[in-house]
C-alpha cells in the first residue's frame, strides 16, 4: 500500500520531527510512505472571514495539486467521523481488498481545509472535537496508521 500524507506547512519542532521520523521508519515495513508538505499562507492574527477563506482556498489549491486521480483521500476534519484504531485498520484493509492501494491523508493548515479539498475527499476523519496543532496531528496520524497495520496483521500493540 502507498500512503501519502499531504500536509500544510513545514515541521519546525525537533521533538515532533523525531517522533515522525520514528513512525516513518516503523511504517517502512508495512507500506511505502510519502510525506508531502505544501507551503502555508501567511496569515495575520486578525483576519476577516473573507481573508480566512482566501487563505484556505490558496492552501487548498496547493493540496489538490498533490492529490493523484486514483488516490483514495481521507481528509482530517473536525467535523469528520471519529473512528477507533480498529475501524481505521478495517477501512484500510477494505481499501486494499478493493484494489485501492493508494491512500492520501490530508491535514490542513491552522485554519483548516478549504471546501474544495473537503469535497474531493472520499472520507472525513476526526481525531477529536478538540483542536490540535496541525503539526502534532501529523505525528498522531502516523502513529495511528502504524497501529492500523499492526492490528491488521494481528501483531501486538498497546491498547
Number of helices: 5
Count of individual beta strands: 5
* Cα separation of the termini: 24 Å
Q: Structural class of the helix and strand makeup?
A: alpha/beta
- The CATH architecture category equals 3-Layer(aba) Sandwich
What would the CATH topology be?
Answer: Alpha/beta knot
Order of H and E elements: EHEHEHEHEH
As a percent range, the share of helical residues equals 40-55%
Any idea how many domains?
Answer: 1
CATH structural class:
Alpha Beta
Catalytic activity: pseudouridine(1915) in 23S rRNA + S-adenosyl-L-methionine = N(3)-methylpseudouridine(1915) in 23S rRNA + S-adenosyl-L-homocysteine + H(+)
Function: Specifically methylates the pseudouridine at position 1915 (m3Psi1915) in 23S rRNA.
Keywords: Cytoplasm, Methyltransferase, rRNA processing, S-adenosyl-L-methionine, Transferase
Subcellular location: Cytoplasm
Amino acid at each position: 500500500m502507498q500512503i501519502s500524507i499531504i500536509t500544510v506547512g513545514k515541521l519546525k519542532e525537533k521533538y515532533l520531527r523525531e517522533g515522525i521520523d520514528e513512525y516513518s521508519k516503523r511504517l517502512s515495513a508495512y507500506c511505502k510512505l510519502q510525506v508531502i508538505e505544501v507551503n502555508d499562507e501567511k496569515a495575520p492574527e486578525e483576519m476577516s472571514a473573507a481573508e480566512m477563506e482566501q487563505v484556505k482556498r490558496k492552501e487548498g489549491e496547493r493540496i489538490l495539486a498533490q492529490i493523484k486521480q486514483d488516490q483514495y483521500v481521507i481528509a482530517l476534519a473536525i467535523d469528520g467521523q471519529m473512528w477507533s484504531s480498529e475501524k481505521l485498520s478495517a477501512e484500510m484493509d477494505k481499501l486494499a481488498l478493493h484494489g485501492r492501494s493508494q491512500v492520501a491523508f490530508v491535514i490542513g493548515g491552522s485554519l483548516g481545509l478549504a471546501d474544495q479539498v473537503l469535497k474531493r475527499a472520499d472520507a472525513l476523519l476526526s481525531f477529536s472535537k478538540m483542536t490540535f496543532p496541525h503539526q502534532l496531528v501529523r505525528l498522531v496520524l502516523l502513529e495511528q496508521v502504524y497501529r492500523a497495520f499492526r492490528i491488521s496483521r494481528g501483531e501486538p500493540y498497546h491498547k
